[in-house]
Amino acid sequence: MARVGLTAERLTRAGAELADEVGFDQVTASELARRFDVKVASLYSHVKNTHDLRTRIALLALEELADLAADAVAGRAGKDALTAFASVYRDYGRAHPGRAAATRMRLDPETAAAGAGVRHARMTRAILRGYELTEPDQTHAVRLLGSVFHGFTSLETAGGFSHSTPDSEESWTRILDALDALLRNWPSPPTR
Amino acid sequence: MARVGLTAERLTRAGAELADEVGFDQVTASELARRFDVKVASLYSHVKNTHDLRTRIALLALEELADLAADAVAGRAGKDALTAFASVYRDYGRAHPGRAAATRMRLDPETAAAGAGVRHARMTRAILRGYELTEPDQTHAVRLLGSVFHGFTSLETAGGFSHSTPDSEESWTRILDALDALLRNWPSPPTR
DNA sequence: TAGGTTTCCCTAAAGAGTTTAGGCAAATTA
DNA sequence: TAATTTGCCTAAACTCTTTAGGGAAACCTA
């Protein structure tokens, strides 16, 4: 039987494309086998199971995203860096909805720690260097930015902002303006 | 054959509980049938298909959440209202992770429009009455708040903030402080 | 380059979920 | 009480997942 040259990597890449086409939760071993014109069982020599496959796709997406973000941030600082960084997330989410959904997959701690998630956190911190935040406020800010990027892109692709004015593009820029202002003027804890 | 008294509502409620126990994407017609001690096919007189079932769970969760939020916000204003409102989202997400995941499900536009999603948007706007924002800034702020609540709770339940200091509770309060400050001081668009 | 070894994809099969079609008895209505 | 509607059933087709074991292709190695 002719060998097709399956590898975990090729399956992962094809799975990522499939995810962008049909949605991350529709990524199925059967469909993947069909695309490689191969029997389903053959995949199981390369990936442990469907969960393993999805995890690989998630890690691939996180890696790609981290690479893009690193490029975007290089040579920029302050609001410029913030905007560039944020745009990478949003653009990626719109260009690759399936992969983006994959990045939101729950990973078990050690897998997450081994993946590019840490690079993301480090880059977010790097961006905050342009603002004068000290710990623990920096961590709070990192989490805020993560939440906004995560939440906005996920609501946007879910269609939450469509069919209403102003369009989401404008909200995005204005939200970044607001976040920039907030970071330049991060409040100290109020006396409770 | 003894009748169990299945209805779409009972199935939906049981499905919501199942979602909280095993995760929203593990909600299966078969498991539900098992719980009611009924054959799977019997569910299909009450619910169109699995997607329909999930949609109903999502709508139930949105409804519950809107009710809780309405209670929490009543009689409060300003930061007080903001905090109460935000807490409802976060607490709900921690108490009912499956239902919360359901609220993040992509709904087709008319279903979404018919559901409680609009109530959420209206309440968010009501909270912003305590801050002096005019359109279109109010819409941007609504979207920012939605993104943060959505993103934070989803990252938190995905375990994104665990095993690191400070704990997510503290970040949550400090992020609310920050958002309050931001809303009181929403920046006008910079000259670009 | 022939032999052995490893690798890769195959067939086969079992298990679980989804969904439709059609039937019979229980509940409701007249 | 008879007629109708409703609710749960059996049966069956289909899809996807996963494991076990087999044979041929690709790769060493002498």
Describe the fold and architecture.
2 copies of one chain form a homodimer. Chain A has a domain at 60-184: Tetracycline Repressor, domain 2, CATH 1.10.357.10. Helix content of chain A is 67%, strand content 0%. Chain A is built from 9 helices and no strands. In chain A, helix 4 packs antiparallel against helix 9 (168-184), helix 7 packs across helix 8 (137-157) and helix 8 (137-157) runs antiparallel to helix 9 (168-184). The mean pLDDT of chain A is 94. At the A-B interface, helix 8 and helix 9 of A face helix 9 and helix 10 of B. The structure holds a DNA duplex (30 and 30 nucleotides).
- Percent helix among the residues of chain A? 55-70%
Between the first and last Cα atoms of chain A, what is the distance in angstroms? 73 Å
Poorly predicted spans of chain A: none
User: What CATH architecture of the domain at 60-184 in chain A do you see?
Assistant: Orthogonal Bundle
> How do the helices and strands follow one another from N- to C-terminus of chain A?
HHHHHHHHH
Rg of chain A computed from alpha carbons, rounded to a whole number of angstroms: 19 Å
Average per-residue pLDDT of chain A, rounded, comes to 94
The profile of the biggest β sheet of chain A is:
none
Annotation field: number of helices of chain A = 9
- What would you call the quaternary organization? homodimer
Q: CATH H level of the domain at 60-184 in chain A: which superfamily?
A: Tetracycline Repressor, domain 2
> In CATH, what is the class of the domain at 60-184 in chain A?
Mainly Alpha
Proportion of beta-strand residues of chain A? under 5%
User: What characteristic shape of chain A results from the CA principal axes?
Assistant: elongated
What is the tally of beta strands of chain A? Answer: 0
Pfam families (chains A, B): TetR_C_33, TetR_N
Protein name (chains A, B): Transcriptional regulator
GO molecular function, one term (chains A, B): DNA binding
Domain HTH tetR-type (chains A, B): 5-65
